Amino acid sequence: MSDHDEARRAFLKGAAASASALAGAALVPEAHAQSHDMPMAPSAHPALATETGGAGHRAFFNDDDAATIAAFAERLMPGAPGKPGASDAGVLNYIDLALAGAYSDLQDFYRRGLTQLDAYCHTTYSHTFKGLDAAQQDAVITALEESKATGFTWPSAPAFFNMVRTHTMEGMFADPLYGGNRNFAGWRLIGFPGAQMFYSPTDMQSKQAFGRAPIIGLQAEAKGTRQKG
User: Fold this and answer.
1) Averaged confidence pLDDT in the chain
2) C-alpha distances in angstroms, 145 versus 101, 111, 126, 138, 139?
3) What angle, rounded to 10 degrees, do the helices at 157-173 and 134-145 form?
4) 183 alpha-carbon distance from chain centroid
5) Which one, of 207, 167, 213, 208, lies nearest residue 38 by Cα?
6) What are φ and ψ of residue 81, in 5° steps?
7) Residue 68 near residue 114, CB atoms below 8 Å
8) In whole angstroms, what is the distance from residue 102 CA to residue 170 CA?
9) What's residue 21's pLDDT?
């Protein structure tokens, strides 16, 4: 993994570790809600998330757009041996379900953003974003972030970058109930314990990342409630 990849991973991990509501649906819900009139916690059709197992898409994205978002998210949070990335955590599934549910007012934002993204990539590299190699994809993402990508009107290039980055963070670190953070990959990465029955005195005093099983999320609790009923 390159230094550039490590820096991106470190940024997202640091943002996740410093957030106070990782177990909720949105990693940065307050800022997101204020900026886009979004609900504080997206439901993103939890039942659908449970049925899909966090594996794919097609609640909103077509195959081409899904491949683009999957590639974009993976460059923001690249995986490596022993280090789960966006693909491992099912970030695409999270964004897909969210856009079909609580974030449905952002559907046109994504459609127009993806169209402008591929137009810029065609102009610059004669390929769509998903057809570029990793270095080219990184260059495109940097151009978006720095408002240097041409051809963007609405959403602007930085706005599109920031939205996908925010949703990638949510998909990595939100409760698995919402379709991402598959197998608690994001929580394990930052040592977030999820719901625990108790904490021992040693746990409370330790300064190390929490790693004791089981890590339990809202989805497991919901399954247990249905089985008891």
Assistant:
1) 79
2) 27, 18, 21, 10, 10
3) 120
4) 14
5) 167
6) -55, 125
7) yes
8) 13
9) 35
Which pLDDT score, from 0 to 100, does residue 58 have? Answer: 83
Q: What single-letter amino acid sits at 92?
A: L
Phi–psi pair at 90, nearest 5 degrees: 75, 35
Please report which residue ranges of the chain form alpha helices under DSSP H: 3-18, 29-36, 46-52, 63-76, 86-89, 91-100, 107-125, 134-145, 157-173, 185-190, 201-205, 218-228
Indicate if the pLDDT at residue 13 is higher than 90.
Answer: no
Mean predicted confidence (pLDDT) in 121-139? 98
d(CA 125, CA 114): 16
Q: What is the DSSP string of 168-204?
A: HHHHHHS-GGGS-SGGGHHHHHHT---B-S---HHHH
Q: What is the DSSP letter of 130?
A: G
CA proximity to 92, closest of 62, 119, 129? 62
* Tens of pLDDT, residues 147-170: 999 999 999 999 999 999 999 999
- Token pair listed for 224: 């247990």
Query: Quick check: 191 and 208 in contact, CB under 8 A?
Result: yes
Nearest-CA neighbor of 192 among 10, 18, 7, 60? 18
List beta partners, residue 216: 195
Assigned token pair, 141: 């993402």
Burial 39-64 (b: 16+ CB within 10 A, else e): eebbbbbbebbbebebeebebbbeee
* Residue 18 binned pLDDT confidence (cut-offs 50, 70, 90): low
